[in-house]
Amino acid sequence: MKLVGPWLSGFTRRTGITMKLLGIPFEHLNLNAYAQKEEVRRYSPMGKVPALVLDSGETLIDSAGIIDMLHEMVGPEKALIPASGPRRLKALQLIGIGLNIYPKLTALYDESLRPPSHQLKSVFEGLAEQAIIGLKQLEAATGDGWYVNNTLGQADIMAVVCYQGASVVIPDLVTAKNFPRLASLTERAMKIDAFASTTPHL
Fold it and tell me: Which residues pair with 29 in a beta bridge?
């Protein structure tokens, strides 16, 4: 299988971490959807990353769908999310928060690339506020172990991706001092190869 997209994309990184934790071998094609548009479109005609090219030649896009398929491949015993019940609900709640934080970070980054005369302070502040609210929710839910049943799973992956992304995009607001539990969770995760080996190089 081939995973298309840079680790700089949190959704690509989320997928890569998942595959590594599940022990699913893949080739990583570090292609940027903006800078290497035509190369990405060879695998993903819409230019969307992440894209996962299966051994059959078929391609899946969107991290949620890809991860759902990966969990189906390994079965419920190995899946990084509970199959049912209250624990699954908790995981989905936390993942949902993360999936809504990350696009705000992407939009904040894009806004920062505009010439200063074209930047809208109200837009920047609004996006940052939404991201911070979500991060505070994750912070409040973070304990001394992993989120769900103290077992490393999708909620932890998404939280780490969001915290690290936010600490780069809005570094004055997202610090270990302001989010000590998320910082501790991230530090613990980064000792695991699946996280450390997918760290984006800015």
Answer: 4
Peptide bond into 50 cis (omega under 30): yes
Q: Residue 132 region, left (φ>0) first, then alpha (ψ -120 to 50), else beta?
A: alpha
CATH number, domain with residue 139: 1.20.1050.10
Residue carrying structure tokens 């298309």 = 4
Q: What is the pLDDT of residues 103-162, one digit of tens each?
A: 999 999 887 777 777 777 888 899 999 999 999 999 999 999 999 999 999 999 999 999
Which of 74, 106, 132 terminates a domain? The answer is 74
Work out how many domains the chain is built from and give that number: 2
Rounded Cα distance between 80 and 96, Å, is 15
HSE-up (13 A, CA, CB side) for residue 142:
23
